[in-house]
Structure formats: C-alpha cells, structure tokens
Amino acid sequence: MTVAAARVKMGLEPRFLVIMGVSGTGKTTIATGLATRLGWHFQEGDALHPPANVEKMSTGQPLTDADRAPWLALCHDWLRAQVEAGHGAVLTCSALKRAYREQLRANGLPIEFVHIDTSATELAARLERREGHFMPASLLPSQLATLEVPGDDEPVIRVSGEKHPDVVLEELIRHFQTEG
Ligand SMILES: Nc1ncnc2c1ncn2[C@@H]1O[C@H](COP(=O)(O)OP(=O)(O)OP(=O)(O)O)[C@@H](O)[C@H]1O
Ligand SMILES: O=C(O)[C@H](O)[C@@H](O)[C@H](O)[C@H](O)CO
C-alpha cells in the first residue's frame, strides 16, 4: 500500500512506533496487527539481534548493556530510515531501560513508544505455553527486574496487555485518530 493510500484508508498521518515491554507481553501481536491495519512498515526487533544474542538468550542467559548496544543501533538505523522515507512504521523492541529508549530516539527521531503492560503471573503462563520461540520462560524474572517503566516525560502511550489484542488495537487506532 502506498503512503497516500494508507492515509486515505485510516485518515492517519504517519507515526513511528516502538512497541515495547518485556518478553511475552504481546509486542509482536500488537505490532503486526497495527502494521496490517494501517498499512505501515513493520520490523520485528528480535530479527535484528546479532546471532550471539539469540544464542545467549536461548541458553537462558540475560543480555547485558554491551550485548544490547549493537542491536539497539540497528533498531535506531531502521527507525531513522523510516522517518527519512516518511511512511508510518512499527518496530518491536523490548526497550527495557530509559537509556535504551534514548538511544532509539537519538538524532531527534520523532519516535513514540507503546508500552504494553502485563502482570507477571499472566506473562509466566504465556511463556510456559508458547512454543517455537528462542526466549525461555526462565528469563522472565530478569526481564521484569531490568524494565524501567517509561516516565511521564517520555513519549509513551500505555496499554494493557491483558485485554484482547483486538481491543488494544482499537484503542490505539482511536487514540491516533483523536490526536490527528
Ligand atoms: N492480549 C493477549 N492476550 C492473550 N495472549 C496474548 C496476548 N497478546 C499476545 N498473546 C500471546 O502471548 C504470547 C506472546 O505474545 P508475543 O509473541 O506477541 O509477545 P512479545 O512481547 O512479542 O514476546 P517476545 O518479546 O518474547 O518475542 C503469544 O503466544 C501470543 O499469542
Ligand atoms: O532486551 C532483551 O532482553 C531482549 O530484547 C528480549 O526482550 C528479547 O529479544 C525479546 O523479548 C524476545 O523474547
């Protein structure tokens, strides 16, 4: 779909969204839904991890700041290319710490974060159920301990990860329509 067609479809100006939160909170579910509904470009942040990071997580070891730095740089580069192209874009990225979010927004990129908040109990149940994903449920405690919830001084939209994804998508699209 062209940019013009997407605008006509939903009446929305392009936005540059990072769908964030801990593992299992629903980033991929919400991001793919938004990108499909709005005709915006989508990037799965997990696909930008260096293979060594995926190997580390697969074997139950949390990533360090140093591990995440090259991955965040690739996420930033992807976002910058979308902003330069001027079409709406949606990236999944855990973006757990404020410093990581600052790295994503560097160079004045007009990024907005959508933080999906889900209770630890629900997350644990989802990760235990999920199959075919490299991230083990055993890393959930470190994900929760690392998360610095975005502050009110950050560009963040907060949504509940415990509502049905369709409800969250409707809420977000309504929010974008209201804000113009
Ligand atoms: N709102 C929801 N209610 C119930 N289940 C959900 C919801 N959103 C996602 N799920 C399910 O929870 C699991 C995790 O969702 P998803 O892969 O979208 O999360 P994620 O944040 O992208 O995870 P990760 O960062 O580990 O890749 C999936 O099995 C998905 O189907
Ligand atoms: O910052 C991190 O620790 C990682 O990005 C993780 O959050 C995973 O990549 C993701 O959640 C996949 O399950």
From TrEMBL:
Any matching Pfam family = AAA_33
> Superkingdom, according to UniProt?
Bacteria
The entry assigns this protein to a family as follows: Belongs to the gluconokinase GntK/GntV family.
Keywords, sorted A to Z: ATP-binding, Kinase, Nucleotide-binding, Transferase
Q: Which organism is it from?
A: Gluconobacter cadivus
* Catalytic activities: D-gluconate + ATP = 6-phospho-D-gluconate + ADP + H(+)
* Pathway in which this enzyme or protein is active: Carbohydrate acid metabolism
Please report the name of this protein according to its UniProt entry. Answer: Gluconokinase
PANTHER family for the chain: GLUCONOKINASE-RELATED
For whether the record's keyword set contains Kinase, the answer is yes
- Return the EC number: 2.7.1.12
